[in-house]
Design goal:
The complex is a heterodimer. Chain A is mainly alpha-helical. Chain A contains 13 helices and 4 strands. In chain A, helix 3 (60-95) crosses helix 7 (156-171) and helix 5 crosses helix 11. Chain A is globular. Chain B has 2 domains: 3-57, no CATH class; 68-274, MetI-like fold. Chain B is mostly helical. The chains are: A mainly alpha, B mainly alpha.
Chain lengths: 304, 279
């Protein structure tokens, strides 16, 4: 019984988590990357190397759909960064104001859309924006802007942006909360010192608070990136697997789902599905690495 | 600190902006719920009016009750969510304890390995997960969903819980050891009760995404008897898309459970986010 004996309690403590995590998450992840190198011929699996990727990028039937989904996905992400995060920061800045009353009420209410499922959010907005029900056109005509109305979800040029904005509406609570927490953790002394120097109001926000919350903004950006590049549910709930009209709202998640499961006349192809999943994996990995090595190491963190 | 502090006009403007945004956030939910209690005619004639004696109707709810098995869906969602949370917390806390308490070869490496899954979404591996579930016969069972959600929740749970377990005093644990308590007793009797707030945070973070997930129920358990509430309402609404009463009632019924959960747990959730557990 030397010190080199296996400490069984450590094994017992670690085993369940490591087993479940390895078997259900890590192994399938790598297995999916591996399956992308195979194809099915006469009901048996055949190794084909990078052929699936050659098809995905080389065959116009596939590559057009892939680049369409990827481009849409970037636009989806761009709208989130442009709308969700700035509005989240402004809301958080207002909520963190020390003399604001009912802050807790506003905070809880604005967070409500975030807890709703994509199915609820997708259908609720579909109904509200629908020309049949007429809530959106009626409200616009009430403020004299009726001419602005269009069946946004049914028009190719607007549908993706509309869905991105619906998603922003749903998730704005997350950046708001994280920034709110970061703003509250800024010590009063720093703000007072700034005030003595004559830096107040908006200047204090831009020059003092914003640099201090940059790490949180970095985290929000990478969370948004990862979330957007494996998004699927909202598009599926609102527009179905075909991501209509005419694939204008197709993103990588819906593209992979259709490829994997098939739709209408096209049969499902797990191997091409894996190839798309591999693409998503590397895109997300690239984003995470960029965040870890470029952004996180460059942002100065302040210890209070 | 700034001029706004002394300027009541700015405070009023902030209230105005926040009220406006609160209305935007709540308006869709409000419209869905009030219209679910109206007759079909009233839904279209005056969508923004509250139901009154003339327009009140429960026809939508009757259709939902007759046509959809919402109690079964609800029960499935409940089982999946509660079981997944249980395993995430139990396994996550055990692994977090091992990583934070004992020095052993490969400790850091193991920590990194478990942390990998925080950033890489489990959905990427869906093709192989379905393969595996088909091979093991778990497809169309709630167990498949529970396993997937447990695996998905573990990385962040281990990460958050081990941060908290490092703060538990060594003296306490060593006193327990001197008293002859086994490592298991120390974990379950001494450490777990002390990290209860962190466990609650982990539970609340995981609860809503699991409850709301559409992807895995759709792929791994689409059978009628294993449908979760989220998938069940999706399918129901897809079938009844022209029956507005039924659609609005189904949506309201799907909103209700999460709202109840939110009212119960919102303080915990907000405290969890703002305490920096996710930094």
């Amino acid at each position: 019984m030397g010190s080199s004996r296996i400490k069984w309690h450590i094994v017992v403590f670690l085993a369940p988590a490591v087993l479940v995590y390895s078997a259900v998450m890590v192994f399938p992840l790598f297995n999916t990357l591996r399956l992308a190198l195979y194809t099915e011929v006469d009901q048996s699996r055949v190794f084909v190397g990078l052929d699936n990727f050659r098809t995905l990028f080389g065959d116009p039937l596939w590559s057009d759909a892939f680049w369409n989904a990827l481009g849409n996905n970037f636009w989806f992400f761009f709208i989130h960064m442009l709308v969700q995060n700035p509005i989240g920061i402004v809301l958080a800045a207002m909520l963190s104001h020390p003399r604001l009353r009912f802050a807790a009420f506003y905070r809880s209410a604005i967070f409500i859309p975030t807890i709703l499922s994509f199915v609820i959010v997708g259908f609720a907005w579909k109904l509200i924006l629908s020309p049949i029900w007429g809530i959106a056109p009626d409200m616009l005509s009430a403020i004299g802007l009726k001419s602005l109305y269009a069946p946004w979800l049914g028009k190719e040029e607007y549908a993706l942006t509309t869905l991105a904005l619906v998603s922003v509406w749903q998730f704005i609570g997350i950046p708001m909360m994280l920034i709110y927490a970061a703003l509250l953790s800024i010590p009063e002394e720093i703000l007072e010192a700034a005030e003595v120097e004559g830096i107040t109001g908006l200047a204090a926000f831009w020059k003092i608070k914003l640099p201090l919350i940059l790490p949180s903004i970095g985290i929000i950006s990478i969370l948004t990136f990862v979330g957007n590049f494996n998004a699927f549910d909202l598009i599926y709930a609102a527009q179905g697997a075909l991501a209509g009209p005419d694939f204008s709202t197709d993103i990588l998640g819906t593209f992979m789902y259709r490829t994997f499961f098939g739709f209408q006349l096209q049969l499902g192809d797990p191997h091409m599905g894996s190839a798309i999943a591999t693409g998503m994996f590397f895109i997300i990995l690239a984003g995470v690495c960029m965040y870890l090595f470029l952004i996180q190491t460059r942002i100065r963190r302040y210890q209070f | 600190m700034n001029k706004a502090r002394r300027n009541p006009f700015n405070i009023a403007a902030m209230h105005g902006a926040l009220i406006l945004y609160t209305l935007i956030a709540l308006f869709p939910v409000f419209v869905i719920v009030i219209n679910s209690f109206k007759s079909r005619k009233a839904i279209f004639r005056e969508p923004l009016a509250l139901p009154d004696a003339d327009t009140f109707s429960m026809i939508g709810y009757q259709t939902v009750m007759k046509q959809g098995d919402f109690f079964l869906y609800f029960q499935n969602s409940m089982i999946v969510t509660v079981a997944s949370l249980f395993f995430i917390l139990l396994f996550g806390a055990m692994a977090a304890f091992a990583l934070s308490e004992y020095r052993f070869k490969g400790n850091t490496l193991m920590g990194l390995y478990l942390a990998l899954g925080i950033m890489i979404p489990i959905r990427i591996g869906t093709v192989a997960i379905l393969d595996m579930m088909v091979a093991t016969g778990l497809v169309n069972s709630l167990m498949a969903l529970i396993l997937v959600y447990t695996a998905q929740g573990l990385p962040l749970a281990v990460f958050i819980l081990s941060e908290f377990m490092r703060q538990v005093s060594d003296d306490l644990k060593n006193a327990g050891r001197i008293d002859g308590l086994s490592e298991y007793t120390i974990f379950f009797r001494l450490v777990l009760p002390l990290v209860r707030p962190a466990m609650a945070t982990v539970a609340v973070f995981n609860m809503i995404p699991i409850w709301n997930d559409l992807w895995f129920p759709l792929i791994l358990a689409p059978a009628e008897e294993t449908k979760t509430l989220t998938l069940g309402s999706q399918v129901f609404i897809g079938q009844f898309v022209t029956d507005w009463n039924a659609v609005l009632s189904a949506l309201s019924m799907a909103i209700l459970p999460v709202m109840v959960l939110y009212v119960i747990f919102s303080r915990q959730l907000i405290r969890g986010i703002t305490s920096g557990a996710v930094k």
